[in-house]
Amino acid sequence: MQYETVIGLEIHAQLLTDSKMFCGCSTKFGSEPNTQTCPICIGMPGVLPVMNKKAIEYVIKTGLAVNCKIASYSRFARKNYFYPDLPKGYQISQYELPICEHGYVEIADNGSTKKIMLTRIHLEEDAGKNIHEGAGNYSLVDLNRAGTPLMEIVSEPDIRSPKEAVEFVKKLRTILRYISVCDGNMEQGSLRCDANVSVRPYGQEEFGVKTEIKNMNSFKFIEKALEYEIKRQIKVLKDGGKIIQETRLWNSERGITESMRSKEEAHDYRYFPEPDLVPVDVDSGWLEQIRTHLMAPTFSFVRSSVHLEEPDLPDIKRQRFICRYGLPEYDADLLISERAMAEWFEQAVKLGADPKIVSNWMMGELTKLLNEENKQIEECMLKPEHLVGLLELINKGIISGKIAKTVFEEMYKTGKNADTIVKEKGLVQISDEADIEKAVDEVLEKNHEEVERFKAGDEKLMGFFVGQIMKATKGKANPKIVNELLKKKLGKE
Amino acid sequence: MELYNLSIYEARTAIDKDEISPVELTEAVFKRIEDVEQTVKAYVTLTKEHALKQAKEAESLAKAGVKKPLLGIPIAIKDNMCTEGIKTTCSSKILKNFIPPYESTVTQKLKEQGYILIGKTNLDEFAMGSSTENSAFGHTRNPWDISRIPGGSSGGSAAAVSAGECIAALGSDTGGSIRQPAALCGVVGLKPTYGRVSRYGLVAFASSLDQIGPITKNVRDSAMLLNIISGHDMYDSTSAPIAVPDFTSVLGRDIKKMKIGVPKEYFIEGMDKEVEASVRIAIRKIESLGAIPVEISLPHTGHAVAVYYILATSEASSNLARYDGVKYGFRAEGKDLLDMYMKTRAGGFGAEVKRRIILGTYALSSGYYEAYYKKAQQVRTLIKQDFEKAFETVDVIVTPTSPTPAFKAGEKTEDPLQMYLSDIFTISVNLAGVPAISIPCGFTSNNLPIGLQIIGKHFDEESIFKAAYAYEQATDWHKRKPKL
């Protein structure tokens, strides 16, 4: 029997607010334990939460970016359970009335696109961390993270394979980074993913019994964990067994999922409306203000004189890159994956450069240089106008494509423009036929044997001659003229 | 008159005229405490050293001509309001040695006005109870008859005011915890409108019902204290961003043509005859001052106690989850985490607190939520609407505060339901969020105080003060003092 996979995801995204959700403590990652705490976020008696409005704004931003309906009235609720990293004994979350509902994210699907529907997006506070270290019979609690705003994005069970799941998370991550609400760092846990997984015989309407998979903290692990879990479930069913509804943890060392708790052991969270907070009213004025500022601020390399349509989310950009700029899908997908890349690209194009050539330079040389230094595009000195200047020099025949790579690297390192570098280093292309002819003659003279072999039919040697001439002219000879002269002299014309 | 029997207003006047000094007054109060505290047991913690230091500071400020409403006035604080650097126990073993590193908003405001903290008063553990017998640190007694309870949960504050162990006090009221002990101890207790006073620093029992208010010797003091503790607080989002009037400005205005609602549901079968008689006489007195009594109905009154014991316990079950032995307070060692949790909470909480946590946990549980919590919320809305409707035709509503005068210590401790019925006339007010005061309106043949409750519209404490002051000025009940 063939089985179909059904996956729904729950994404937890830490919001990039400076302060926590209900107090003024910093949300910075990696500080000494319990240095970013106060009576409010450690749940002392008698303290009260006060909502960080920025956090609500960020959730609304996200909702707008993923096509959700934004509730004009929403409410917080308490989720009750005991755990040492949860100082109040309850988490302030949302239950009945979340801020956002009914959205979708589009993912690429064999040349077309597929909509993954979103059930809801709500806001809640993060817990602290239990630290188990040393041989002692104890654990320690770090409450620095307690109270950090956390957004939960819940998808419908629309995902049909681990690959789609990864696509979905990647796309969502890109969107969250575009609108600057979450840094998307899965290693540090600012983006976390849980999955509800089940399988069913093809054609069956009804869902199979699901398991919930936790602890998948990279794209690779999401794919591996889901693949493992699907295989495991199918095997259980084929062996005549039944899937038990339970929560399972991905063990990345062993490459398997392991049972954590069964449905019977599941908590009864006893949700009820949070009486310490007033409900959130989102009026149309506020909503419009958030919508207007969805994408701002942009990067310094985008000149204010160049107007970019707003809000300019990845899907809209992708469409434009393909339709207006004629990029292949592959190029478009790579360029839109980071907002800075996309806007860098578009800035260069708006300055008059050929889109595909810009794309080639970005995906080739630029990406290579950035990777070598482990840098982001917005951190480097090379600006779109530098590349455009370089391309102009090539078009005008002032430098060769080969020299251009050297100039590009120099621009990347120094932030100088191409013109200056070419002048300083004397890299102007030799286009004077007489000068090149001299070099050609010298090379043919020196390599008499090769000339004979070429004439006898070994035409592969053409490359060798070109190489030698370039070497002799330090790469400055205009390759077109070199080719023409060579062909003439070797009697190929 | 003995200095300890002064009201805030009288003490203020005397200090300002330099007739008495803050140190004298504070020492007089501590002398009184020395004399009667072992009988009354109103306090969990006395802060004598701290108080005398504050008094000296107040004295030099007063001499320098500084004028502040509470400069040099000794006030007691119920021990569920956090005081920075001073133990705040909630009369619970689980917070026995808890010293808050922060100040509650109300005490901060009192500080800014120069008050002297006398001590932290006893209460039913976490404010759960009506007799102050559910305290881990001893039972407070009623100054009018020490074989009786002072009411609760702010029994310590009410007894301290009544016995002259402070000039005034703060209490908190979730279902009657200011008004009922005020009535039983013959003093004035006000529960302000929900949202009038910041709850920041008040250890939560039931967040949607809790409200801090003054317990005082007369109505003027109550208005004075409310002036100080009211107002929106950026640390409490449920505190209302509504302007605070000068509540003393309405004192002395006549109440002619004021419509006084008398709800028939508050004069019930089984209530104490002397209480009923006193309240009816009080209503006639108010009428004689020109007000017009109107019989009204608050039809959902009968459901109030049931609704309250679902909602308050539900919220409490969650509010008290933080006392888990992990971060502060009492911890019992256990063989693992769960064992530590269970032993800590089993050993740290008293019986009534556990009873309410269990009840609230049950009411919120999956499968029961709709039938209990949700239904109770719906009925709460009906109760609120009862008041809204009544206030379309009347200015204030007058009822007895408590169905009985102070009962004997131990009389109801074995019967929680009987104990819960002590709050039958006060609970609806919390559910509706409206303000209400209890003022003395007579004594039983046993010389036990009886309280009259005056209820107002949302954020209309002014009408309450106007009516209460007019009645108080026309009677002498508030002048009587217990013989200790």
Report on this model:
The complex is a heterodimer of chains A (493) and B (484). Chain A has helices at 53-65, 162-178, 219-238, 284-292, 314-323, 329-336, 339-350, 355-373, 384-395, 401-414, 418-425, 433-446, 448-455, 461-472, 479-489; strands spanning 3-14, 69-70, 73-74, 77-80, 90-93, 100-109, 112-125, 129-131, 140-142, 149-155, 191-201, 211-214, 246-251, 256-262, 272-273, 280-281. Chain A is an alpha+beta fold and 493 residues long. Chain A folds into three domains: 3-273, no CATH class; 296-425, no CATH class; 433-489, Orthogonal Bundle (Arc Repressor Mutant, subunit A). A nine-stranded mixed sheet of chain A has the order 2-6-7-10-1-11-12-13-14. In chain A, strands 5-4-15 form a three-stranded antiparallel sheet, with no helix packed on it. A two-stranded antiparallel ribbon of chain A has the order 3-16. In chain A, a hairpin with a 4-residue loop joins strand 13 and strand 14. In chain A, helix 12 (433-446) crosses helix 15 (479-489). The mean pLDDT of chain A is 88. Chain B is α/β, with parallel strands linked by helices. Chain B has one domain: Alpha-Beta Complex (Amidase signature (AS) enzymes). Chain B is built from 15 helices and eleven strands. Chain B has helices spanning 8-16, 22-40, 48-63, 105-112, 155-163, 179-185, 219-229, 273-288, 304-319, 337-348, 351-364, 370-390, 416-420, 427-432, 461-474; strands at residues 43-46, 74-78, 116-121, 168-173, 188-191, 211-216, 259-263, 292-296, 396-400, 436-443, 449-455. In chain B, helix 4 (105-112) links the parallel strand 2 (74-78) and strand 3. The relative contact order of chain B is 0.14. Classes of the chains: A alpha+beta (493), B alpha/beta (484).
